[in-house]
Amino acid sequence: MAPLQKSSSKKNPQVIRTIEIRGDQTLADLHEIIFEAFDREEEHMYEFQLKGRGPNDPNADRYGLAVALQNDLDSPVAGDVAETLIGALDLEVGEPFSYWFDFGDDWWHQVQVSAITAPQP
Fold this sequence. Notes:
Helix content is about 15%, strand content about 30%. The protein has 2 helices and 7 strands, in the order ββαββαβββ. It is globular and about 40 Å long.
């Protein structure tokens, strides 16, 4: 189980949620957890960006929905959120990454790993 801190980086920087997710869960699962934690009601396109220097860094590793990835030829894609396990991302404590929700309204969130713990039996 790895507690993660998630905060909104654009519209409401003071809004923070602390969530937990297991290494055997996917980025799609993380999206659902964030979606519920922020009381979202309507689904929109989203992606996660890792190893970048901030939102929309063209050098970041991008993980998105399969349908969106098929249509995006502008920059390379690292993987499909439905197939990418959290544990396979080699995240480190203190490491931030971006979550971009709703490509029209541009809700950018910074997710930061606050701890990584051993799996419980």
